[in-house]
Amino acid sequence: MNYILFGDHARDHLLPFTFVRPLADIRIGILTIREKWEHLLQAPTSSLTVDYLSKKYPLVKEEDNILINSSIFPTMEIIREIRSLLPNQTLVSGDVLIAHRLRAEDIDNLDADLLEAVAPLESAATVSRIACLYDIIEYNRRELISDYHLITGGRDSQPVPSHVRAVNPGQIFIEEGAVIELAVINASEGPVYIGKGAHIMDEAVVRGPAAIGEGSTVRIAARVYGNTSIGPHCKVGGEITDSVMFGYSNKPNDGFLAHSVIGEWCNLAALTTTSNLRIDYDDIRLWDYAVNSFVVTGSQFCGTFMGDHTKTGISTMLNTGTVIGVNAQVFGARFMRNFIPSFTRSSQTGHSVIHVEKAIETARKVFERRNKTFDEVEEEILRHVFEQTLAYRKI
To answer: Residue 213 in 3-state DSSP?
Structure first.
């Protein structure tokens, strides 16, 4: 069977992250949504996504295919139901489409008649899904714990070094090649996963549930609190709590990051600080691209949602409920506005446009620093996002 992940209308609510990736490649917990599905399916997946992302994330079609809604968190019960689908049958949960089995020639011509060709199968599973930006924070603790057991089940951790102060070491899993110096790892309130080749320096404290991704560095005296996911090849320092960093991003110095989500290839300069609680304790609103307006999160705790390739200057202060687009530069020691468009240089006094050629030049340099190649495919994606977000730079 061939499995294809698609993003439903939730994709628009998850911008700016889905400007540059399919919904399936959002990281939440230790793994991306795609990695969760592939682990449970024990099979690779491809993506049915918007045209300008299809070169980087190509669609693979075979004679018999199952399309799976990537906004849904997979479980083994859902997997079993998916595998029981008949040709042209859909799996649904109420009005939410979970999966659809169809032939290759029908993938590009989906319509209502086709979806109704066979009576839908109503899922008996408890279905949860990511539908908005704040859900990344809302579900991260649960997914950290779930992914920990998914990844480590039946495997042995590398031993915890004797010089490390470990609390509840049975819930600490260390992959091969990870280096932990004179640090504190506290798994008393949830498991801690330390990825292959990760490096935790002296006097750093990591408190579970938390994950430090492959090749990432937790710098000297950093404080990583619970419900925090650090993706692969990041550098983190200062204080971090209840946050997700997708990968290849840096927050290496002092500063405070809380209830926030940081995309890839971002850099938070020294003393960058996010506010995650209003002074009047009201619920926090977030910009939602799907409705071009701010929406109430229903939470008193909400920080910054930062799109890929964005950078902050030294001592930047980010307000509660801030959404920053792709390839922005943000700087200033007073609070910024809480919606910052893509490809802008923004301060408290206003913003100017970053031309796409300059953005590409900077991205190429950043990739080279990580021994990566910023190729024509990546360039084409940035150019498309630049054009797609033009109207926001006029706000």
So the answer is: coil
